[in-house]
Amino acid sequence: MLTLIEPINMNGLSDRPHLGCAMLIAACQEKGIKTTLINGQTRYLRDMFLNGSDELWGLIQSLKDSDLEKIGIVSYKRSIQDKGVKQFRDGLKSLYQNVIIDKNARQYFNAQMREKLNNLHDIFVEIYSYYLRELKYENLRIIDRYVFDIIESNPRYIGFSLEGRFGPLSRAIRKRIKETAEIPIIVGGSLSPFIDLKKLDHIFKEEYFDYLVIGAGEEALPSLIEAIDNSREPRGIRNVFYKRNGEIRVNDLGVINHLDSLPYPDYSQFDLDLYVTPERILPLQTARGCTWRKCAFCTNHNIDLGNYKAFSIKRVIEAINHLENTYACSHFAFHDLDLPPQRAKRISEAIVSNNLKNVNIRTLCRLVDGYNNSTLLSLMRKAGFTLIQWGMESGNQRVFNIMNKGTTLKTMSPILKKSFTSGISNMCFVIFGFPGETTEEAQQTVAFLENHSKYIDDIHGGTFFLEPASHIGKNPERWNVTMKSAEGYSTKDGMSCEEANAFASRFMKEFEINSIRLASDKLKYLLPGFNREILHFLSSSHKLVTNTILLECLKKRKRHSIFPIILGEIKKKGSRTVLCPININEAKFINEYFPMKEILLDSLKERIFILSDGRLSIEEVILTICQDFKGRYRKECIYKKCTDFFRNIFSKNLGLAFAKSWR
Asked: Mind giving me the DSSP string for 138-174?
């Protein structure tokens, strides 16, 4: 019996289950190893907002003022000081219910509750991390519950993934298990290829495990368990590191050459409906590794030891079909580091020829010349590609060159235009402060984004971070970079780290408040800083229609084909009921400080608002109203009142509408 713990990703809220765990479950079960999953992201989120609210209240109240200042939550404690534990608990429960359980479409496009959940999540993570790291306090109920459930699963082996900077919770759980039970602990995960092999002895001690799997684990993990079961030393099992007689034993590293031999990922034990997304999204790989592998800043290709291996096109189609039928899911996120244009073409052709109609796909792509092809991008959209996350990084050719991006400005511009024209949403990743980049060159990136705003749905901007395992980290002198004795670096040319951070911070602030104005109908305005790509992905797959089209449908009485979402919230003000609207043509910043005039609602209009959350067509909303108000108004009168109200709402751009239901 193997018990796997899904990575406890405390660095942000996940919108999908963990692909690595799903692959390992399938691989172990295929070898006859019974495998139980302890959920990570969904589990600890539930523990924080439901089961652990009393504990969180106590932890916050116990912190000294100096501790609160270090964490940066002085103002938060003041804001909850007068509430009391019951009100605090009820507030968290209500928030979790609204965002995670109810999954009301209006809330996802409004984003106020989701932002609140996100902000509180970050605060609570900082509190737990501070207790574990700074105060060395591990007597936490959230740890107790994990350890209890792990031990209750009666495992012979326990598997963990190594996490990044928010690994203290997972580490504390492993430590507690080591103190209470003699069960072998195996760790692995995508971070394992970046481990400094010279420090393995220290890592074994500090991370509390017995075996380490570096790289692909679908073959290594079952082989390791079989060896231990038969009292054999796991000598010669690729990717497995272990300790014997106080000495670290090292095996060769390798990749899986025949990916089609692997089973489909097994998501049957995940809480698929408790992730922070309105619909299920399942991750899937069509290939491992990167065909380029030359970007100076990147480390991801190290995960596959610099190799590129692909599943056959036939197997990709079979996997999509299997996941769609098994898990009632039509949204897929390709976890490929690189999707070359020719492979995108073959996958798209296969999806179309196999008549997979309900497929919606998001993927990462490089801005290379092969994508400068309207026919290809239109084919991809027909096949179900709804969102492409482009590794743009810069808007300056010299910076592209020193990054080794293999991208040109001449190619990048028409690709974004053609992708937009084909109906695919474009998201661009940009990096500020790559060593040698000047302020003027960074400003050229901003200018490029402004000039192409019509074609870009979203931007993810950040500051360059030097990873030791990257090309530049391994050879800093080539980029005129000097590594400092402590963490950090200095560069001879371009912006300093401080200047780059200030530039990126200023850019993102201006971006969020609409100074850098992208096309007015972009959903990014509603979700600053919080998984905006999910809404691009879902909205594009649900055929978001313009208010002009919607009004035309109302005029022609095609009410059955439109599914409305009236944005905003209802508030009671004395005896009056008012709708506080949100205008999707303006930034959240504008609505927050200059809110639109409230709309007074009677009982019929209030009912329309409640029903217009994306699950019912306009016709279905009206029919429900007719039933609810039967005897009070004539049917013709209700139709007119409802149609007039919809026309008023959508003529003022206070809602969204889809040509397909939300569910």
From this structure: ---HHHHHHHHHHHHT--SEEEEE--STT-HHHHHHH
Angle at 220 between CA 215 and CA 224, to 5 degrees: 135
Q: How far is it, in rounded angstroms, from Cα 398 to Cα 441?
A: 9
d(CA 542, CA 511): 26
Provide the residue type at 90 as one letter: D
Residue 662's nearest CA partner among 557, 543, 524, 491 is 543
The three-class DSSP label of residue 330 is coil
> What is the residue whose two structure tokens read 């596959």?
304
Can you give the residue ranges of every domain in the chain? Answer: 2-250, 283-541, 544-658
How far is Cα 385 from Cα 394, in angstroms, rounded to an integer?
24
Q: Report residues of the chain scoring pLDDT below 50.
A: 165-166, 513-530, 587-590, 663
> What ranges in 31-167 are assigned the alpha helix state H?
41-46, 53-62, 65-71, 74-80, 85-96, 105-110, 112-129, 141-152
Integer angstrom CA distances of residue 596 from 575, 588, 651: 21, 12, 14
C-alpha distances (whole Å) from 130 to each of 56, 125, 599 are 12, 8, 45
Angle between helices 635-651 and 603-611 (to 10 degrees): 60
Q: Rg of the Cα trace of the chain?
A: 26
For residue 599, give the nearest of 648, 551, 638, 643 by alpha carbon: 648
224 φ, ψ (degrees, to nearest 5): -65, -45
Q: Which DSSP helix (H) or strand (E) runs through 568? A: strand 568-573
DSSP symbol at 529? T
Task: Return the residue matching tokens 């402590």.
Answer: 486
Q: Which of these, 212, 223, 167, lies nearest to 185 by C-alpha position?
A: 212
DSSP state of 630: B
Can you give the pTM of this predicted structure?
0.89
Name which of 365, 386, 397 is nearest 539 in CA terms.
386
What CATH number has the domain spanning 283-541?
Answer: 3.20.20.70
Tell me the one-letter amino acid at 213: V
Return the closest-CA partner of residue 50 out of 126, 163, 131, 141.
141
209, 201 Cβ separation under 8 angstroms: no
H/E element, 419: helix 409-422
How many other CB atoms are found less than 10 A from the CB of residue 94? 12
Q: How many residues does the chain have?
A: 663
Query: Are 371 and 341 within 8 A, CB to CB?
Result: yes
DSSP H or E segment with residue 362:
strand 360-365
> CA 625, CA 318: separation in Å to the nearest integer?
44
Q: How far apart are CA 582 and CA 299, in angstroms?
A: 41
